[in-house]
């Protein structure tokens, strides 16, 4: 019989789903005693090269309050041509097209291996994708030139039929009218005054978007009649003119006095972008791509004033309630984000500057719409250029990975209710019998909207157990616009067994997925951290961990040394330890913008990447054997080893002291020591594989013992040896870390003491 | 064939800027990974740190050399990041070899494409010529343009398009001003060629019709 690990892995590969518990506790009370809620990570568009979409529409349950989709869990009576919905038990007639089905001739959606299946929706118009560039011109010359080149390059990467538009801003905001005729025109707006959507649309002279463009020359087969606007034109028509227009962009002409910041009207620029798309192309896939080289300093949404001597807010300022612009600016961008999300448009932010740019206030733009947030030092860096290129990466079929306008609907069998979701989504406020009153994350609904997504986008979905019945089942239905502009529906239906928590706890324990549980709890923690005080979140996390250990640990009361956890829980405390130290919950040493950026990526990545973020991976390379994973601990730092650490945001290669000395002496260049050359190369090759594929592109740190950059490694490893306890261990192995942070050992000791104590 | 290379990042402008991969390497990524670095080690439950074996003790005076490998092999294996050996093109890529087919392609499109577009393309080809003759274009750009033109002449539109993309990604500074003209030219030739094929099919169909209908007198 396959172990649960295999079961978990197979399910993830097939359905893109990982549950915290794979055997469910059969009563509400018992479920709350599990501590970790019943929840799952769902990757709606998980790449499935082996799953071709079917070219027909799904069959729905006829009960109006149900409408679940035909799936392998349904009972079928082939002779009577009936199927029973496994969610509401309604008997439904098969449609006429299914007349020929039988036990030996099943449609795909009834076969168990198609628990996840994708349908192509044939009807309805296919609208082109839309890309609206919003470009900050208050950049240094080099930076502006690099950004212009990246944008020109992107015109070669965009789908030829997609529409593209350009808004530039600095002190004023310019909306460029794109035409093939020669003279370029633009509409100029003041950057100080916000306008309503209607005002923007009136001032731009936008008419109703239902007038089709007649093809001028009937001989052009690829020109279909579709809508376009003076501001958003098809790439294949406008690329030459737009290339020139981009090439001619100048720095913002307004002089910046000594001691001042440039006046940047980002708030109005984004407002105009949102209003423009609202008025011309509502409810179709579009990306607003905002490129900024500094903070907004003027108008609505300004984050800091123009006096350089007044710095942009830090965490300290925020704690002391000393951030004057924060509330108003956040409100402005939240309003814009909600409007964009309502229209199915996503907003990306590409912020490249050495100081903060206001990502804290603007994060709702990306987080509510599913847009990307990329933070870099300059547009003239490989990090920005390649991250930007990867947005346009293609899958194995040559289609763009990005997808648009998704709605996720979750249906559950009667025994479960939906508590909420955490991820890059907004609620669609759809109430119903399967919606729980207890909210976790974005709750009070069974449907969410994700305006921008890709094959790695992952949501955390939280459930509440209310009773026990037959087999518990959940169906995830994702309607979305594929990058080929086809509309598709991805349906995943999963089921699990129940068990009585009193008598069958061992079964429930064995089916615990500690990795999924860690990520789901982490998402809850980070969600809380947005509105609660940091120390409160840590206390909550600690309390949950202690309760979990009390419930599932094996121990003798009041005897910490007897404490043991079974294999399915053994990594969980370690994850929690590293989570407490992570930049997601520890804002010390990060600016508010950096924390916002880290949290943004954490709230949308799949399980493997999320775990890397919580507890970085550490691999050790040596002459003793092949590369092996090692404890993320100071004892792993040894003179004759090379370490490769992956934190998701950074790739660190660290040469141990002896290795560094050998490299300095040049042994890698001598033919007799060729194996040393291979040893040095091995981590570089592995790092390259990661760097080639990851989005966003990580920073790359190549350092050695004693190097200043070694701090990236030293700050992440568990400090089992510090200056405080170095001599207590007797022998000197590994590198001591100069810190007062609690080590994993001390943490575990405290945990065990508290878990076995009857006082708790 | 696009080039496969890795350049260092821009250390001056970005701290720890990662290396820059060429278009060829980036589009390659996505196949099965050699090694999946995702394993972890559980901390020992009893709390004591693992004490792994170590060959040298820290703080000791300068250590000896690393363990030597076997006697060096003749024709030692290449490191995996070295690019595969392409046949080295000894001769200079000639401007005429690239420009003439492009101008010919433009001529072919003149009857069918809007005048303004043709003029715009022509302007950019002139710019290409100027930059090439002025020595402003690097060898890899010239080589890849020669390949692009070959693909264009053989009606391999997707391949030509891919080469244009790889040039835009890897050498945007050199090519951005005129490459969009080449891109358009490929697109226009593709349309023109598919129309010609469609017309040919129509005319062969009617020719067959004429042949199969008996008894029709040919015009004198």
UniProtKB/TrEMBL annotation, chain A:
Pfam families: Gelsolin, Sec23_BS, Sec23_helical, Sec23_trunk, zf-Sec23_Sec24. Residues 128-392 form the Sec23/Sec24 trunk domain. The keyword tRNA processing does not apply. It is a peripheral membrane protein. Residues 627-713 form the Gelsolin-like domain. Residues 513-611 form the Sec23/Sec24 helical domain. Residues 403-499 form the Sec23/Sec24 beta-sandwich domain. Keywords: Cytoplasm, Cytoplasmic vesicle, Endoplasmic reticulum, ER-Golgi transport, Membrane, Metal-binding, Protein transport, Transport, Zinc. Residues 58-98 form the Zinc finger Sec23/Sec24-type domain. It is found in: Cytoplasmic vesicle, COPII-coated vesicle membrane; Endoplasmic reticulum membrane; Cytoplasm, Cytosol. Component of the coat protein complex II (COPII) which promotes the formation of transport vesicles from the endoplasmic reticulum (ER). The coat has two main functions, the physical deformation of the endoplasmic reticulum membrane into vesicles and the selection of cargo molecules for their transport to the Golgi complex. Belongs to the SEC23/SEC24 family. SEC23 subfamily. This is Protein transport protein SEC23. It comes from Vicugna pacos. The lineage of its organism: Eukaryota, Metazoa, Chordata, Craniata, Vertebrata.
UniProtKB/TrEMBL annotation, chain B:
Signal peptide: none annotated. It comes from the Eukaryota. Gene3D superfamilies: Functional domain of the splicing factor Prp18 (1.20.940.10). Residues 59-203 form the SRA1/Sec31 domain. Residues 1-84, 194-220 are annotated as: Disordered. It holds the Pfam family SRA1. Keywords: Receptor. Residues 59-71 have a biased composition (Pro residues). The keyword RNA-binding does not apply. Residues 204-220 have a biased composition (Polar residues). InterPro entries: SRA1/Sec31 (IPR009917), Steroid_recept_RNA_1 (IPR040243). The keyword Amino-acid biosynthesis does not apply. PANTHER family: STEROID RECEPTOR RNA ACTIVATOR 1. This is Steroid receptor RNA activator 1 isoform X1. It comes from Vicugna pacos.
């Amino acid at each position: 019989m396959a172990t649960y690990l295999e079961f978990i892995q197979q399910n993830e590969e097939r359905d893109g789903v990982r549950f915290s518990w794979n055997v469910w506790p059969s009563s509400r009370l018992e479920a709350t005693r599990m501590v970790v809620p019943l929840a799952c990570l769902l990757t709606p568009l998980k790449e499935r090269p082996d799953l071709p979409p079917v070219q027909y529409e799904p069959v729905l349950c006829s009960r109006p309050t149900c409408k679940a989709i035909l799936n392998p869990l349904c009972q079928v009576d082939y002779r009577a041509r009936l199927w029973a919905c496994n969610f509401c038990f309604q008997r439904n007639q098969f449609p006429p097209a299914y007349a020929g089905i039988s036990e030996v001739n099943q449609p795909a959606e009834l076969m168990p291996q198609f628990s996840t299946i994708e349908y192509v929706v044939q009807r309805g118009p296919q609208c082109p994708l839309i890309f609206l560039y919003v470009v900050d011109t208050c950049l240094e010359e080099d930076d502006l030139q690099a950004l212009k080149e990246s944008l020109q390059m992107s015109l070669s990467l965009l789908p030829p039929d997609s529409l593209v538009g350009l808004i530039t801003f600095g002190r004023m905001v310019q909306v460029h009218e794109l035409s093939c005729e020669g003279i370029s025109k633009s509409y100029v707006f003041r950057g100080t005054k916000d306008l309503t959507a209607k005002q923007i649309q009136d001032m731009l002279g936008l008419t109703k978007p239902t007038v089709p463009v007649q093809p001028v020359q009937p001989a052009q087969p690829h020109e279909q009649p579709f809508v376009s606007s003076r501001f958003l034109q098809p790439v294949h028509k406008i690329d030459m003119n737009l290339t020139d227009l981009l090439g001619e962009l100048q720095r913002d002409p307004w002089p910046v006095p000594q001691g001042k910041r440039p006046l940047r009207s980002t708030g109005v620029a984004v407002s105009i972008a949102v209003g423009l798309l609202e008025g011309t192309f509502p409810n179709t896939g579009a990306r607003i791509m905002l490129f900024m080289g500094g903070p907004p300093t003027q108008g609505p949404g300004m984050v800091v004033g123009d006096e350089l001597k007044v710095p942009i807010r830090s965490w300290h300022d925020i704690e002391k309630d000393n951030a004057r612009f924060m509330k108003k600016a956040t409100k402005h961008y939240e309003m814009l984000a909600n409007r964009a999300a309502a229209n199915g448009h996503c907003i990306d932010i590409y912020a490249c500057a050495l100081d903060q740019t206001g990502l804290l206030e603007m994060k709702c733009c990306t987080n509510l719409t599913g847009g990307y947030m990329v933070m870099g030092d300059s547009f003239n860096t490989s990090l920005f250029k390649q991250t930007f290129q990867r947005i346009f990466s293609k899958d194995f079929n040559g289609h763009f990975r990005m997808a648009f306008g998704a709605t996720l609907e979750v249906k559950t069998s009667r025994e479960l209710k939906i508590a909420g979701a955490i991820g890059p989504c907004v609620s669609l406020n759809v109430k119903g019998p399967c919606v729980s009153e207890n909210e976790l994350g974005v709750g009070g609904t069974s449907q969410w909207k994700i305006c921008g997504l890709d094959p790695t986008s992952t949501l955390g979905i939280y459930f509440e157990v209310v009773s026990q019945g037959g087999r518990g089942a959940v169906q995830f239905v994702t309607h979305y616009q594929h990058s080929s502009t086809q509309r598709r529906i991805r349906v995943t239906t999963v089921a699990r067994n129940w068990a009585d928590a009193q008598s069958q706890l061992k079964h429930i324990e064995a089916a615990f997925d500690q990795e999924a549980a860690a990520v789901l709890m982490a998402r809850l923690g980070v969600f809380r951290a947005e509105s609660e005080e940091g120390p409160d979140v840590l206390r909550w996390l600690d309390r949950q961990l202690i309760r979990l250990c009390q419930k599932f640990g094996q121990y003798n009361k009041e005897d910490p040394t007897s404490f043991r956890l079974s294999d399915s829980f053994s990594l969980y405390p370690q994850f929690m330890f590293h989570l407490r130290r992570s930049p997601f919950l520890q804002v010390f040493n990060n600016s508010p913008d950096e924390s916002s950026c880290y949290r943004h990526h954490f709230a949308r990545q799949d399980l493997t990447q999320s775990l890397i973020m919580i507890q970085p991976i550490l691999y050790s390379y040596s002459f003793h054997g092949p590369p092996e994973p090692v404890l993320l601990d100071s004892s792993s730092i040894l003179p004759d080893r090379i370490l490769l650490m992956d934190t998701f945001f950074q790739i660190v290669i660290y040469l141990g002291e002896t290795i560094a000395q050998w490299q300095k002496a040049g042994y890698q260049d001598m033919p007799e020591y060729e194996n040393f050359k291979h040893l040095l190369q091995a981590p570089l090759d592995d790092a390259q594989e990661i760097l080639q594929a990851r989005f966003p592109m990580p920073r790359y740190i190549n350092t050695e013992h004693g190097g200043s950059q070694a701090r990236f490694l030293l700050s992440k490893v568990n400090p089992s040896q510090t200056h405080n306890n170095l001599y207590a261990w007797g022998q000197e192995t590994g590198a001591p870390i100069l810190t007062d942070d609690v080590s994993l050992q001390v943490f575990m000791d405290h945990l065990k003491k508290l878990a076995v104590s009857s006082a708790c | 064939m696009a080039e496969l290379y890795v350049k260092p990042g821009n250390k001056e402008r970005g701290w720890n800027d990662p290396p820059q991969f060429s278009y060829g390497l980036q589009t390659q990524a996505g196949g099965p990974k050699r090694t999946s670095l995702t394993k972890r080690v559980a901390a020992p439950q009893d709390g004591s740190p693992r004490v792994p074996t170590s060959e040298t003790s820290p703080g000791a005076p300068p250590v000896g050399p690393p363990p030597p490998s076997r006697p060096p092999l003749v024709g030692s294996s290449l490191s995996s990041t070295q690019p595969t050996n392409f046949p080295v093109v000894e001769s200079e890529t000639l401007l005429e070899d690239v420009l003439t087919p492009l101008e010919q392609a433009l001529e072919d499109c003149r009857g069918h494409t809007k005048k303004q577009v043709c003029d715009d393309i022509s302007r950019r080809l002139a710019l290409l010529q100027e930059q090439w003759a002025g020595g402003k274009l690097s060898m890899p750009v010239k080589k890849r343009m020669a390949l692009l033109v070959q693909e264009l002449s053989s009606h391999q539109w997707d391949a030509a398009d891919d080469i244009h993309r790889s040039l835009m990604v890897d050498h945007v500074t050199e090519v951005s001003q005129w490459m969009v003209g080449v891109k358009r030219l490929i697109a226009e030739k593709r349309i023109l060629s598919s129309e010609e094929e469609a017309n040919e099919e129509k005319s062969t169909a009617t020719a067959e019709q004429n042949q199969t209908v008996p008894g029709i007198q040919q015009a004198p």
